[in-house]
Design brief:
This protein is mainly α. The chain has one domain (8-55). Helix content is 48%, strand content 0%. It is built from two helices and no strands. The protein starts with 7 loop residues before the first helix and ends in a 6-residue tail after the last helix.
């Protein structure tokens, strides 16, 4: 996943879609985030907090 420039709502929608996909089929073992997290969007810190929270969990929930 790339370029989430401070946009928490689209990030949350994407994470929800991934979770729904994983529940309907075989889950993916690894997620890779790269790109721009803290650019022009209004919610740079919530995006960073959410990604750090995800990274600290053994599974994506």
């Amino acid at each position: 996943m790339d370029d989430i420039p401070g946009m928490i709502d689209p990030l949350e929608r994407l994470l929800t879609a991934i979770k729904q996909h994983d529940e309907a089929s075989e889950p993916v073992d690894k997620r890779i985030f790269f790109g721009d997290y803290l650019d022009y969007g209004p919610n740079s810190w919530p995006v960073l907090d959410r990604l750090m929270d995800l990274a600290s969990r053994p599974s994506w929930s």
